[in-house]
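Backbones bend. We report:
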Amino acid sequence: MTSTQGIVALAAAGVAAVALVLAVVLAVRLRRLRAAQRAVLGDTAPRDLVDHAARLETGFADLREWVEETLERIALRMDATEHRLDGCVAYRALVRYDAYNELSGHQSSSLALLDAHRSGVVLSAIVHRDQARLYVKQVTRGVGEIELSPEEREAVETALGPAQAQSAA
């Protein structure tokens, strides 16, 4: 061990031991890195990180396109639904009264059924002791096409509320 060859052999053994420790440390780190890579890429995915990133980008682009198309379809359906809802009964009111002033308990009534455009019909049922009559009048934008009776006008104004009735006049 005192010879030059012994010292070189000892030094080579020390370098080999350090290299072995370094190789073990690097192997452990590589195993952890591969485990992390499997967690990100999955077991069946290729080992290429660039390819995986490209596939993710393509997937996100497809997803973005699908979401935008879906939003457009939803917007079209909402427009159609809102258009249909505008034609539904949005305002209604019932006014009961005694048409013949006979103290008969307010058996006559006028019913206003109007849509979002303040258009619709007013149904009036005039009840007398021995007969009943039913009248229907068209209303467009809060105004009757045929002159409305005071009770029918009250039903339209009640249905529309004070702010809507004033804008219709």
Remarks:
- The mean pLDDT is 87.
- Residues 52-86 form one domain.
